[in-house]
Amino acid sequence: MEAEEIHEPDEGSDAYALKPELFAELRAALEAGDAETIDRLMEPLHAADIADLLEQIEPWERRELIELWHGGLDGEILSEIEDNTREEILGYLSPEQLTLAVRELESDDVVDLVEYLDDKQQEAVLDYLEPLDRVAVETALSYPEESAGRLMQVETVRAPQHWSVGEMIDFLRAHPENLPEQFYHVILVDPRMKPVGNVTLGRIMSSKRSVKLWDIKEDIFVTIPATQDEGEVAYAFNQYHLISAPVVDEDGRLVGVVTIDDAMIVLSEENEEDLLLLAGVGENTVSDKVSATVRRRLPWLAVNLVTAILASLVIAIFEEAIAGYVALAVLMPIVASMGGNAGTQSLTVAVRAIATKDLTGSNVLRVIRRETMVGLINGAAFAIVMGIVGIVWFGSPMLGVVIAIAMVINLVVAGLAGTVIPVALEKMGVDPALASGTFVTTVTDVVGFFAFLGIGAAVLL
Amino acid sequence: MEAEEIHEPDEGSDAYALKPELFAELRAALEAGDAETIDRLMEPLHAADIADLLEQIEPWERRELIELWHGGLDGEILSEIEDNTREEILGYLSPEQLTLAVRELESDDVVDLVEYLDDKQQEAVLDYLEPLDRVAVETALSYPEESAGRLMQVETVRAPQHWSVGEMIDFLRAHPENLPEQFYHVILVDPRMKPVGNVTLGRIMSSKRSVKLWDIKEDIFVTIPATQDEGEVAYAFNQYHLISAPVVDEDGRLVGVVTIDDAMIVLSEENEEDLLLLAGVGENTVSDKVSATVRRRLPWLAVNLVTAILASLVIAIFEEAIAGYVALAVLMPIVASMGGNAGTQSLTVAVRAIATKDLTGSNVLRVIRRETMVGLINGAAFAIVMGIVGIVWFGSPMLGVVIAIAMVINLVVAGLAGTVIPVALEKMGVDPALASGTFVTTVTDVVGFFAFLGIGAAVLL
Fold first, then answer.
1. For residue B115, which of B92, B149, B89 has the smallest C-alpha distance?
2. In chain B, which among 158-197 make CB contacts under 8 A with chain A?
3. Chain B contact for A392, CB < 8 A?
4. Most buried of the four, A120, B59, B215, B386, by CB within 10 Å?
5. What are the transmembrane regions (chains A, B) (predicted)?
6. Assigned domain for A6 exists
7. Alpha-carbon span B337 to B360, nearest angstrom
């Protein structure tokens, strides 16, 4: 890794954002083919910022920049780039550039780089690795996608459980070249390579040489099965404030270590996934092309169309009522919209609570009770407001009563549906963020239209 | 801290969730007043899990559990509990229990515990601290809310920049009692206490005693101003894969250190905030009471009511058209609903990209262009479908044409509004997750109804 330093950040909310002036200068330099200026502009940037920069410029600018810049794309930059852009770039890198890029990475970063490549590309990249590194990467790739086995690095620092501080320090000094770039714990293992404890480097350094590692091991110790889902791994790190945790195979033997920086990335991705799923966008990012974006959004809109037609069928039942009393058509979207919003509120709180394991069998009934009460209270409040609006706007007290009753019904149903639907999906093994939104708004649309138009038709005509 | 071990997690998606049987047994023991069983059930649990457990049971169960359980609420558990529940518990803890709880915490955890208490309660807790700890906590509290100064711990491990590995290790061994519980770097400082570099413990341990710390310092080094927003701090940790970073005052002098586990919590909270804001729920959690929940959701529903009425006013313009051609009323929610969904899709992608600094001045025009194209393509696709539905359902080719045109218009507008509105809010210094949703659906409702009913009135009557 080359030396790099982050410029002292300005205060304020854009401390770490790339500056617009940088883009302007860079584009001018690209247009002029001025490699020297490009080198000067790129030099102070951190690999992660270079990755962001590459994602934000146009594809042709990207290609030109990579060709002109003498710094060259190293493995660190490549592993920071978001999947689609990376795939594009890998397509035109020379074999020499690729070799240089992958050789300097830790095994987990190489895995991250190649896991979504097609078999042929993957094979090509792996060919550039040293034999031992290649075995490490292939082992990781043998674990399921999005598992701890994919996330871990195979390079671990371990010691027999009977070692002393002095033995440990001597061992580390004797083999500095074998140590991973970052490590925070020494993992104690028993003779069969099962991890039995973690010792922080801080404790080792501040203890006398004669002290046994076993006596200064951490109080909390979590081992992670290699097949465990990476979302669970991230949860464990966040919940138990872990810094690193050993990964074990099915026999309980040490096969690698997951560190908190990787867990943090997963946590952030999982949160993003929930957010995007709730909005019905799958894995869409701003750097996706038009075709990829259409592909990711159209199916969700299609589902929404079906449910919207369902709601329209309910309206169609009351065609005559509407023709005879047009105010019903004017006001009906209000009841549906309020229900949809209240349902989305309940739903989002529930989905989030399920993800953080705060909504479980032990409190689901309490939450449902609370949501019903909240729906009732909010419904009553807006029933009064809308009742008055109905009277003032259309001069009909009965219309006011009808919309008020429909409002209460729909907001109670919204609270119920917003909680029960994600909980039920989760019980069925479906991600509650997926599809919940559509189900909930379908329920609130149908119930909203039915209640308002049904009561209206019965009372007003 | 007492010794604790996480039971080997089962595989599957609920590896770390609290088991329903635990709650059942605990409730039975509470009912029977059986303190022994309670102790046995609580003993293997980690502080973070105990906190979750306390949040999930009823308030009266909580109080009884705390009274019966001999383990006692320590500071670690308290600092893990979510704000509302914690405030309730602090209300009935005895002064002795509080003293015990806060004394064993690092300064950043004490800050976290007391920062949202009212002045009197805060004063009471601070009184239990040793004078030096008290100064540390009060210094942190002097920084703005949600700043790096609040997040940092004041206990740092630092060394003059000219020290060698040997000097460092001797120093650490001589004063083990002064070391923080967890630390990952030694911070090198110049004579005026300005941090000039970070050395990882791993590098120190694997280097010879004569090696200068300066020569093995990390390549990447970020210092964080104490007044920086905690969201920016979390971004820096995630972006640059930091493990710990020194915090400096306005003169650039070292005042503390932020570690990645705290940054991870902030990142997770910021993501949660975005998710909840987008759904219009503020800081609502499943453990909030009914009154708190109503208070957090009602204002957003009120805003939605105003915008829904706005949409109804648009419909009211076309009352006559609807009375004469009821199919318009039946189909109009479809156009609005599709627009609202497409707008939410664009919006969510944009809000997320703004949060991760992937949508900036450098690519905003490209993203807007893309969103317009996506809107056009999706609009055209659904225009064809709805055109056919219009013809088949109502036997009117012209109605099909009308809804098709309205669909294209609304989906293009949705893509535009979903991107432009959050970008504009962000430019104005408003959190783009806040209120964007309401603005976007207002636009798509109004445009959708206006386009469909307007064209319909002109063409069909």
1. B149
2. 169, 172-173, 175-176, 179-180, 182-184
3. no
4. B386
5. 298-318, 324-351, 372-395, 401-425, 437-460
6. no
7. 29
Q: Of A289, A305, A386, which has the smallest distance from its Cβ to B338's Cβ?
A: A305
Residues of B in contact with A344 (CB under 8 A): 279-280
Closest-CA distance, B396 to chain A, in angstroms, reads 16
Is the Cβ pair B202, A207 closer than 8 Å?
no
Q: Are B229 and B334 members of one domain?
A: no
> If you count them, how many residues does chain B have?
461
Of B111, B146, B181, which residue sits at a domain end?
B146
- C-alpha closest to that of B225 among A168, A11, A45: A11
To the nearest 10 degrees (0 to 180), the angle between helices A131-141 and A107-114 is 60
Residue B10 lies in a domain: no
Interface A-B, measured as beta-carbon pairs within 8 A, has a size of 419
Q: What are phi and psi of B240, to 5 degrees?
A: -105, 10
Chain A contacts of B403, Cβ < 8 Å? none
Give the bridge partners for A185, in sequence order: A200
Restricting to B residues 82-111, those with a Cβ less than 8 Å away from any Cβ of A are none
| DSSP code, position B200 | E
Q: Is B135 found in the same domain as B167?
A: no
Chain B touched by A235 (CB under 8 Å): yes
3-state secondary structure of B379: helix
Q: Let me know the angle formed at the C-alpha of A205 by A202 and A206, rounded to the nearest 5 degrees.
A: 85
Is residue B455 domain-shared with residue B317, that is, in the same domain?
Answer: yes
- Selected for mutation to probe chain A from B10, B243, B360 (highest A CB count within 10 Å) is B360
Distance from CA of A345 to the nearest CA of B (A): 6
CA distance A227 to B11: 8
A181 and A198 fall within a common domain: yes
Nearest to B358 among A55, A347, A362 (CB): A55
**Closest to A237 (Cα-Cα) out of A256, A258, A268, A216:** A258
Give the confidence band of A272 by pLDDT, cuts at 50, 70, 90: confident
Domain count, chain A: 3
Nearest to B221 by CA among B178, B186, B170: B186
Residue B53: CB atoms within 10 Å? 22
Residue where the block lists tokens 């920069």: A53
Do residues B326 and B452 share a domain?
A: yes
Domain contains B271: yes
Q: Longest Cα pair distance anywhere in chain B, in angstroms?
A: 94
Neighbour-count burial for A21-54, b at 16+ CB within 10 Å, e otherwise: ebbebbeebbeeebeebbeebbeebbbbbbbbbb
Q: State the CATH number of the domain containing residue A68.
A: 1.25.60.10
In terms of residue numbers, what domain contains A258? Answer: 158-278
B422: Cβ contacts below 8 Å, ≥ 6 apart: B347, B350, B351, B354, B432, B433, B436
If chain B, 461 residues long, is cut into consecutive pieces of 10 residues, what is the mean pLDDT of each piece?
45 72 92 93 91 90 90 85 85 77 80 78 81 86 92 92 94 86 91 95 91 93 94 93 93 94 90 88 84 91 94 95 95 95 94 90 91 96 95 94 96 96 92 86 96 95 83
Residue A10 has pLDDT above 70, yes or no: no
Of B346, B335, B340, B344, residue with least CA distance to B451: B335
pLDDT at residue B10, rounded to an integer: 47
Angstrom CA distances, B130 to B93, B94, B140, B376, stand at 20, 18, 16, 66
Tell me how far the alpha carbon of residue B22 is from its chain's centroid: 29
With beta carbons under 8 A apart, name residues in chain A contacting B329.
315, 319, 322, 326, 329, 332
Report if residue A450 sits inside a domain: yes
CATH number at residue A265: 3.10.580.10
Asked whether residue B300 falls in the same domain as residue B385, the answer is yes
pLDDT tens for residues A195-211?
999 999 999 988 999 99
What is the C-alpha R_g of chain B? 29
